[in-house]
Amino acid sequence: MPEVLTTPITSPKLDSRIPEGPIQDKWETAQFKMKLVNPANKRKYKVIVVGSGLAGGAAAASLGELGYNVKCFTYNDSPRRAHSIAAQGGINAAKNYQNDGDSVYRLFYDTVKGGDYRAREANVYRLAQVSVNIIDQCVAQGVPFAREYGGTLANRSFGGAQVSRTFYARGQTGQQLLLGAYQALMRQVDAGTVTLFPRTEMLDVIVVDGRARGIVTRNLLTGQIDVHMADCVILGTGGYGNVFYLSTNAKNCNATAAWRAYKRGAYFANPCFTQIHPTCIPVSGEYQSKLTLMSESLRNDGRIWVPKNAGDQRRASQIPEDERDYFLERRYPAFGNLVPRDVASRAAKAVCDEGRGVGPSGLGVYLDFADSIHRLGRHKIEERYGNLFEMYESITGENPYEAPMRIFPAVHYTMGGLWVDYNLMSTVPGLFVGGEANFSDHGANRLGASALMQGLADGYFVLPYTIGNFLADHRPDKLDEHCPEALEALTNVKDITKRLISVNGKSTVDELHRHLGKVMWNKCGMARNAAGLQEAISEIRAIREEFWKDVKVVGTDGDLNHTLEKANRVADFMELGELICRDALTRAESCGGHFREEYQTPEGEAKRDDENFSFVSAWEYKGASIDPELHKEHLTFEHVKPSQRSYK
Amino acid sequence: MRLILHVWRQSGPNAPGRMVRYDAPNVDEHMSFLEMLDVVNEELIKKNEEPIHFDHDCREGICGACGFMVNGVAHGIQPRTTVCQLHMRHFKDGDEVYIEPFRAVAFPIVKDLVINRSAFDRIISAGGYISTPTGSAVDANAVLVRKENADLAMDAAACIGCGACVAACPNASASLFTGAKISHLNLLPQGRAEAGERVRGMVEAMNSEQFGNCTNIGECEAVCPKGISIENIARMNREYLSAIWSERPETGGGDGG
Amino acid sequence: MSTATLNTPSRSLLGFYSTTLGKKLVMAITGFILVGFVVGHMAGNLQVFMGREVFNRYAALLHSSAGLLWSIRIVLLASVVMHIVSAIQLALLDRKARPQAYVKWKSTKSTYASRTMYWSGPIIFVFIVYHLQHLTTGRLHPTQPFPGYHMAYENVVTGFQVVPVSLFYIFAMVLLCMHLYHGIWSMFQTLGVAHPRYTPLLRNLAVAISFAVLAGFSSVPLAVMLGFVR
Ligand SMILES: Cc1cc2nc3c(=O)[nH]c(=O)nc-3n(C[C@H](O)[C@H](O)[C@H](O)COP(=O)(O)OP(=O)(O)OC[C@H]3O[C@@H](n4cnc5c(N)ncnc54)[C@H](O)[C@@H]3O)c2cc1C
Ligand code: HEM
Ligand code: HEM
Ligand code: SF4
Ligand code: F3S
Ligand code: FES
């Protein structure tokens, strides 16, 4: 862009702390410059890790190994059940084992481009660099990645990538990676360096003199509310996709940890960058409780199509080839069925809007394996996707080997999250954020198989360094659990719990959550526009009021009470939803997962506005009744020059 | 369709429990079993009663959080299926459905169908890992792994830690769970260094958690949602015997601290 | 490796036995010895069909060397005792493992034999005790011609002419068959012999032996009752 334009200034409150020097050396320079903690002192430092997923689990295990005094919290009954377990497709790494021209630089390039130029180059480059160590680490831990007959590791290409850089363990990659981290964690628990707190939910952050010094938790079994103090706090608490009620996230995924941190001064970045995944099983009824993802890897061998003419009621098998529209292959000859998620999802929505959708609801497209079964033989397909096909059949009762799958886009991942600097520290000193909970590396759209990579990069290879650097500057001092800040947070949590129980209205938590979800999906989903977003904001406010007037929470706060847990989380969704819409409204451009109907090319592709929106929006909480303040981190691209993404 | 449910209700760990009869009037065949319970629970809440508590999270058959007895079978009669993936099309109008928690002294009941499976975590912490400090790893392709072994290890590693094997075993034995993890790690070259210590530690942990003994009955393998084979129990026994056999008292064996 | 497992009990022989797998090993080995005896004993018994001389000569042969005889007896006795002791210890453990039974429990795959090992076993034991009184010492049936092995053939024949006795024998043999039907395969599983290709064969082997034992042993009382052997 010409110089005359006033380049946006980064808000002084947002110091991204990107190291000097050429991008290839930034991380190494940073590592060298980092101060070290005397091994003898490490034990004296208390570190709180909230979350036992890839980010939290890996961080807790590694920090415990280093000798810090770690406490790890999770609301699951076992750390092994963190939502990371559900990841299917695989994890990227620039190993170039397939000798197909991959490299750290290419992975970096693809990720920045795939993110539609809304990510920080330095972070993404570091991610690509450590990706190779991740695979080494996981293999050494015993993660049973798929292998070739020669005994070497197998790879496949994954949504949007033209090289085979994705490592996988059948359709259960996330499970195997998480079990690796979980086992490393349990090893530390056994060694006494990490204390586990399962079925314990963090409900507030304690900030003393502007620094995160602890958290307030609720024991989900006894209802006991406690204060835990520490020298620093790490959040690896996952994404907020469940604000839409229906998503591919696990039922208990929630934004409470991030949201309560936001209310304590951590800025929330790019909340409107939510990812819709193209290949999910369509909704079957009102009672639907969640949506099931069919791994993106299916797009490698499956062809996506709908009937050419609207309202074609025939069964798939009866529709002749020339009456089928393989719309992705038609619109994007170069990438075909492998275009990035946001592109594929919108294309599917478009054909359904034209009335060409399939299935009872008309909200679905075919994912057809007939050709590849014909080409490769059934057993090859079975070997690649066996368990996914099983899952599909057990849910729909249809056999994908015979009839094509029906799929439809669904909320899947949230690129947005708490704002962090290069060291993964939020705007609250001492509060670090890793994994899906932070906003960092995926810009406006995440490429397939990159979240597992990021979660483990943060947990194994970034946080252990940056935490040490932070602690080296702060003596392990006496922590007072009864300091006014701690007590204030404690009473705050108790009040919320009491309030939720005392409302005793008529609507169930799920009813209200579903209502919120519908508004979010219809007005802030795959396509958004100013008018819709304004409506959404006022509707959400109304639902929120209704929630606090009419929610029904049965049972007590003195024992296991799922209704209360849910209410607590939905209460925060009711507020987060509004911020998402507000962010979507201010971002008057289309980029990645954020598609504003007002801003599109004649062919209906997303139209970015780099002149005015090449920044990270970071929202600062100002108080219950006051609008949040928007801060901007200006993004500069020295290596990957922004261009209109084209997958044609 | 309409179903009659008989559900185990127990308000707390020490409270007495009993079977309670519920009516599920309009069940859709496309619902999952848990969605069917969701609907029942919504009604209960509206009637100001506490909903039926059951653990669940992913609802995709992978996290292992869900699990209870459906008509006397762990996760229900549908093979290789967790209860969250069990769909109502497998039931017919008028069916009576008995729903009970997994029962074992090592899995104390928390509330209704919710149980405490932390014993599994303690078994893992007694050796269910490979000791590789972060950053110490060699290149991933430096050690080749026979595809057969990699596949067998993956078969065993697919365990989701749901506890159905214990629930179904007449002896409440955790042999399938423990055998699966031992197989997964001991089958891989990376896991051999600690193989002996691992199997010994985990078997002893399994015993001290008061799980029963395996008499090779095989119910576990039949209900296991991931189809883990009792071949893994034999492998555990073999690994254990050879660990005892090759025991050298003076050396501490592989040390992973 | 883990602090919990350093100096683990299983480093001493006693400690090894203290684990369930230790006890299972004892059961397998003793079980194996017992099976060996049973098969051999059955073969011996079938000589009944070769007439009086042959059988009594065989019985005499068995007793020709007191040393050998007693060493065998001691091994058998020790095996049965160890087998039973560990069985009882494990049984108690298993009871403790599930104090509260299911309101409803359904078998999906397991065999009846496998679920009733704790029943078939003891009944077999009762049989053995009776059997020794019946044919080794003869104390229970004074009507029988004795003394001991010199008239083993006569003892067997007159013994089995009492129908209820024969029926009890056959009943015991059915249980023994069940016990071995699961036991022998289980033994291999316990010893860690598991192989995708060979395990099915072992299963069949177990079935073959158990039914051979049933047929072989039962044939004697049957033959006597039906008057083939007199
Ligand atoms: C169905 C599905 C498939 C996917 N497939 C892929 C894939 O193939 N490749 C890929 O790269 N990515 C994939 N992803 C994305 C990826 O799995 C996630 O982004 C990633 O695992 C997030 O890991 P995490 O550690 O950040 O958070 P999580 O794994 O979600 O862990 C969150 C942790 O925080 C804890 N927690 C949260 N809030 C609190 C609180 N208030 N108090 C206490 N504890 C709390 C939870 O208990 C949990 O332990 C997939 C996602 C889904 C939903
Ligand atoms: C006398 C009382 C007996 C009892 C209480 C008893 C009980 C048992 C039990 C509980 C098992 C365990 C099954 C398993 O773990 O798989 C078993 C196994 C076995 N029993 Fe017995 N049994 C008895 C007598 C016998 C006799 C007389 C024989 C042989 C003739 C025998 C042969 C076996 C064999 C071969 C096994 C398999 C060993 C194993 O599974 O490891 N048992 N017995
Ligand atoms: C119909 C079946 C059987 C017949 C006809 C039979 C016959 C006999 C006879 C005749 C003897 C006395 C031999 C002698 O004193 O010289 C004997 C001894 C014995 N039998 Fe059997 N038997 C039968 C089944 C069994 C079974 C099933 C078992 C064990 C499970 C068994 C265990 C023994 C033992 C332990 C002895 C004592 C051996 C000794 O003298 O030390 N028998 N049997
Ligand atoms: S072995 Fe099977 S049944 Fe047992 S815990 Fe693992 S997955 Fe569940
Ligand atoms: S059912 Fe139980 S007895 Fe063994 S084989 Fe399975 S654990
Ligand atoms: S809820 Fe995760 S396995 Fe059933």
Give a verbal description of the structure.
The complex is a heterotrimer of chains A (648), B (257) and C (230). Chain A contains 18 helices and 21 strands. Chain A has helices spanning 26-33, 39-42, 54-66, 104-114, 121-141, 173-191, 256-263, 298-301, 327-331, 341-353, 370-376, 378-396, 451-472, 484-503, 509-524, 530-550, 562-586, 610-613, and strands at 46-50, 69-73, 91-92, 166-167, 194-197, 200-208, 211-219, 225-229, 232-235, 268-269, 274-280, 303-307, 324-325, 365-368, 405-414, 417-418, 431-433, 507-508, 551-552, 615-620, 629-634. Chain A has a five-stranded parallel sheet. A five-stranded antiparallel sheet of chain A has the order 11-15-14-12-13. In chain A, strands 16-10-20-21 form a four-stranded antiparallel sheet. In chain A, strand 20 and strand 21 (629-634) form a beta hairpin. Chain B has 257 residues and is an alpha+beta fold. Chain B is built from nine helices and seven strands, in the order E-E-H-E-E-E-E-E-H-H-H-H-H-H-H-H. In chain B, the strands form two sheets. In chain B, strands 2-1-5-3-4 form a five-stranded mixed sheet. Chain B has a two-stranded antiparallel sheet with strand order 6-7. In chain B, helix 3 runs antiparallel to helix 5 (175-186), helix 5 (175-186) runs antiparallel to helix 7 and helix 5 crosses helix 9. Chain B is elongated, with a radius of gyration of 21 Å. Chain C has nine helices and no strands. Chain C has helices at 13-18, 20-45, 52-64, 66-97, 112-115, 117-137, 152-161, 163-190, 199-225. Chains in contact: A-B, A-C, B-C. At the A-B interface, helix 3, helix 5, helix 6, helix 12 and helix 13 of A face helix 1, helix 2 and helix 3 of B.
